[in-house]
Amino acid sequence: MPQPAQSTLKTEPKSLQQQISEAVQNRATPISQLLRLMSALDADTTANENLRLQLRARIGAPLTA
Questions:
Q1: Does an H or E element contain 52, and which?
Q2: In the Cβ-directed half-sphere of 18, how many Cα atoms lie within 13 Å?
Q3: Which of 11, 15, 36, 50 has its CA 20 to 30 A from that of 24?
């Protein structure tokens, strides 16, 4: 049984900062993803405090905001 051709396109992994920035801007990002990003951010000792505040604000923001 033949295998379908796999894409050889490789993308660079996004930095945590990029992921958080995109998640904060995208109102469709699920809360579970936001919480995973917060967990990763808490584990990063070199993380910018401003990122942490932005993500916390986004997690607590109403959906209609």
A1: helix 49-60
A2: 4
A3: 11
| Cα end-to-end span (Å), the chain | 51
Q: Structure pTM?
A: 0.73
Q: Please give the distance of CA 52 from its chain centroid, rounded to a whole number.
A: 12
Give, in order, the Cα–Cα distances in Å from 2 to each of 6, 9, 13, 32: 12, 21, 30, 37
Amino acid identity of residue 61, one-letter, is A
Q: Which tokens hold the place of 2?
A: 């033949």
- Please tell me the predicted confidence (pLDDT) of residue 38: 93
